[in-house]
Specification:
It is a single chain. The protein is an all-beta fold. The chain has a single domain (32-168), classed as Immunoglobulin-like (Sandwich). It contains no helices and 12 strands. The strands form 3 sheets. Strands 1, 3, 4, 6, 8, 9 and 11 form a 7-stranded antiparallel β-sheet that branches. Strands 10-7-12 form a 3-stranded antiparallel β-sheet, with no helix packed on it. A two-stranded antiparallel sheet has the order 2-5. Strand 3 (51-55) and strand 4 (61-63) form a beta hairpin. The radius of gyration is 30 Å and the shape is elongated.
Length: 169
């Protein structure tokens, strides 16, 4: 006797099918920055030769060639620029400072270049120009730089501005 087994595969065709993928969003705090103190190199004598005045991020002021200038202890005194950053808790952020030969401070028609801007934060991230916001969404950092004086730089009160930018990293 011969037996046949029939196997049938049924394929159901659908005219349409609905897929329900997920959707999401995160709403975070905008990053913000405030300045506590302004960058100031303090008071010094008219230089007898070209000299760089370095103001470190820890508020230490030194002259590249001390014999060319006298760093004075009169007002206004030296101070680093200090900032507070606000944003999302525990987030990394990037600090962008001016590049060399971009910032000039002036006293009338006389000018001085400010170079080598450097930040310092107690919560340094992966590099020299980043920080990490704490569990409250805050961090502070300071900025130092180098003042490039020419021999016989004209006396005066020199002022100017520079940009500091912070962004989530």
């Amino acid at each position: 006797m011969l037996t046949y087994i029939m196997v049938s595969i049924v394929t159901v065709l659908h005219a349409q099918i609905t897929l329900s993928p997920s959707a999401g969003s995160k709403v975070g705090k905008a990053i913000a920055i405030t300045q506590s103190t302004s960058l100031h190199f303090g008071t010094m004598s008219v230089p007898t030769g070209a000299v760089n005045i370095v103001l470190s991020t820890t508020n230490v002021r030194t002259a590249s060639i001390p014999a060319n200038v006298t760093l004075l202890s009169q007002s206004p005194l030296r101070q680093t620029a200090t900032y507070t950053v606000y944003g999302d808790n525990n987030k990394h952020y990037l600090i962008t400072l001016p590049t060399n030969n971009v910032v000039t401070i002036s006293s009338g028609a006389n000018h001085i270049h400010v170079n080598n801007f450097l930040p310092y934060t107690n919560s340094m991230g992966n590099g020299h120009f980043d920080g990490i916001l704490n569990s409250l969404g805050e961090d502070t950092f300071s900025v130092g730089a180098t003042l490039v004086l020419l021999s016989g730089q004209a006396s005066g009160v020199y002022t100017g501005t520079f940009n500091v930018t912070v962004a989530y990293n």
